[in-house]
Design a protein that fits this description.
- Belongs to the short-chain dehydrogenases/reductases (SDR) family.
- This protein is α/β, with parallel strands linked by helices and 247 residues long.
- It has a single domain, classed as NAD(P)-binding Rossmann-like Domain (Rossmann fold).
- It contains 7 helices and 9 strands, in the order E-H-E-H-E-H-E-H-E-H-E-H-E-E-H-E.
- The strands form 2 sheets. A 7-stranded parallel β-sheet has the order 3-2-1-4-5-6-9, sandwiched between helices.
- Helix 2 links the parallel strand 2 and strand 3.
Length: 247
Amino acid sequence: MSKIALVTGGGSGIGLSAAKSLAGIGFTVILAGRNTEKLAQAVAQFAPGQAVARQLDVTSPQSVAALFADIQETFGRLDLLFNNAGNNVKDVPIDELAVEDWLSVINTNLTGAFLCTQAAVKLMKQQSPQGGRIINNGSVSALSPRPNSAPYTASKHAITGLTKSTALDGRAFNIACGQIDVGNAATDMGNKALAGRMQADGHIAEEPVIAVERVGEAVAFMAGLPPGTNVLTMTVMASAMPLVGRG
């Protein structure tokens, strides 16, 4: 029987790439997101039975609860959660940032990951055999900020705390939790680097990107580890990305 994986934000980009890599190592993948049309197009890229689509708003406790109830009823268990759903707003100085924009990023990137983690841990504790794995999409912004990126940076630093707390609290229940920090993957968000991003000294510079498939492969590596082995943090980025030495 194949293992079951849930990928939030699974309709495109890193989520879809990770889902394809997970299917490639034997997972049945649940692609979750808000855009049902995009999810249907994504599922069509898989072999029959490899993937299913489910609508999900990670910022809604009711939506998250409904999805996990469906997972338990349909599949009986969940072996892997990839907390990938996220958003961002336009980079602006912190004194010009609208509170609504701050909340939009925090609610999706942090609270959404918390709600899904909470539901996954509850299910993983109850299922037999007990346990599972959670992988959080952190970003290199969990390590070092870009200029004018307070909400995104704060949300991703907080993801690191959520990852470590989940890893600690999950030990007694065979639940592993790790984090992947991605730098400039070729997605709608990551491709902004090709057009030039502001550096710490204020100048604009083009930055290299990596193929999104490399990220999917890294997620599958983390997911494919045997029980009892965990990658707590992994950074995947273009080797020439100016992350090391920012500032």
